[in-house]
Amino acid sequence: MSQSSIFPSALTAQRAQITSSAGTLALLVTGFQAWRERSRSRRDLMRLSEHQLQDIGLSRLDAETEWQKPFWQP
């Protein structure tokens, strides 16, 4: 008789915990990547010239307002 037939609920609970941990880690990594991308995009926005900002329909004030947001805020 194998252990999995003796303790099926324990193995199922262990697998669920591993799956949950992997899901949590994936969410953290995805969140971190989004934060980095937001930060990089805002920094790049501040490097644009007045003419480049005007081409994309933004003013310097719009760019500065976006720059002031915390990295976690979309």
Describe the structure.
- The chain has 74 residues and is mainly α.
- It has one domain.
- The protein has 4 helices and no strands.
- Helix 2 packs antiparallel against helix 4.
- It starts with a helix and ends in a 6-residue tail after the last helix.
- The mean pLDDT is 84.
- How many structural domains? 1
Encode the helix/strand succession as letters.
HHHH
Helical content band = over 70%
Largest sheet: none
Task: Give the CA-CA distance, first to last residue.
Answer: 55 Å
Which geometry do the CA atoms define?
Answer: rod-shaped
Q: Tell how many strands the DSSP assignment holds.
A: 0
On the 0 to 100 scale, the average pLDDT is 84
Q: What does the radius of gyration come to?
A: 23 Å
pLDDT < 50 stretches: none
Topology record:
Elements: H1 3-6, H2 8-47, H3 50-55, H4 60-68
Give a concise summary.
With 74 residues, the chain is mainly α. It contains 4 helices and no strands. The longest helix has 40 residues, at 8-47.
Tag the structure with descriptive keywords:
74 residues; 4 helices; rod-shaped
